[in-house]
Design a protein that fits this description.
heterodimer; A: mainly alpha; three-stranded antiparallel sheet; elongated; B: mainly alpha
Chain lengths: 155, 107
């Protein structure tokens, strides 16, 4: 039930932002569309912890704060290397162990790796993720595992 | 105050554009597919965010601001998935990364 309410709120917000028409007729149309989508989602059986991870909402902002800092630093690093006369890159590819227990945790971990320029998750399974990195240092940072630990803490 | 916000917005847009240019430069200069994807990552994360934040600052309170936030959220949610799909497709197709260092223990 909590998930249904959550998806209803999300869909309503998206409808309200994208519509811009707030006459009663359009609001009824919007409500009907939201109801239809919820009905479809129910029939497809996709309203659960995976599509509506509300159990994560408390810890997620803190993690994102940390991740944004990481992303900014990584962006500057990659942009700097693009401008170097002879780009000082040392591409590496390596399997990084995945310590997260849930699918959601593993997806957040792989997405975080992808969001950080300079590291790219190529293949993900339950035990490890194959990562390609622009520099050896970026890979060492992942091997050291602070990002993995932080994701494990919030999942 | 309005001037102050305009200046901040201009700075955001300028840095964002510069980063997009850097990303494009990286795509052209880096040696192979995987390293080029890292350069493209610059344009879709910080550069896109800065440009959208710059636009948000001059948009004022209203529907436009909400839509810009929505665009930013969707970019940040979809771009890592897209780059993963791209990287995985290249890997599955047998494209080996060029010039990887010794520590590589891939298969």
């Amino acid at each position: 039930m909590r998930h249904t309410i959550s998806i209803a709120i999300m869909l309503s917000i998206i409808w309200l932002i994208n519509s811009g028409h707030y006459s009663p007729l359009f609001l009824v149309f919007g409500a009907v569309s939201v109801a239809f989508v919820i009905w479809f989602a129910h029939r497809m059986d996709v309203i659960d912890d995976e599509s509506q991870p509300i159990h994560l909402s408390a810890e997620l902002p803190l993690y994102y704060g940390w991740l944004i800092k990481k992303i900014v630093v990584a962006n500057i690093d990659v942009a700097r290397r693009a401008w170097q006369v002879k780009p000082s890159i040392s591409p590496s590819i390596q399997n990084i162990p995945v310590s997260q227990k849930t699918d959601m945790g593993r997806v957040i971990f792989a997405n975080s790796i992808n969001l950080t320029p300079g590291t790219l998750s190529v293949e993900l399974n339950n035990e490890q993720v194959l990562v390609h990195s622009l520099t050896y240092e970026a890979m060492q940072e992942l091997v050291e595992g602070e990002m993995g630990r932080r994701v494990s803490k919030i999942e | 105050m309005a001037l102050f916000i305009d200046i901040i917005s201009g700075v955001c847009l300028l840095i964002g554009s510069f980063l997009i240019f850097s990303g494009a430069l990286g795509v052209l200069r880096f040696p192979d597919f995987y390293t080029r994807m890292h350069a493209a990552g610059v344009t879709e994360t910080l550069a896109a965010s800065l440009i959208l934040i710059g636009l948000m600052l001059i948009a004022g309170w209203g529907l436009v601001l909400a839509k810009l936030i929505l665009i930013l959220l969707f970019i940040l949610l979809t771009s890592p998935t897209a780059s993963h799909a791209l990287g995985k497709a290249a890997w599955k197709a047998g494209l080996k990364p060029a010039g990887t260092t010794e520590n590589s223990d891939h298969r």
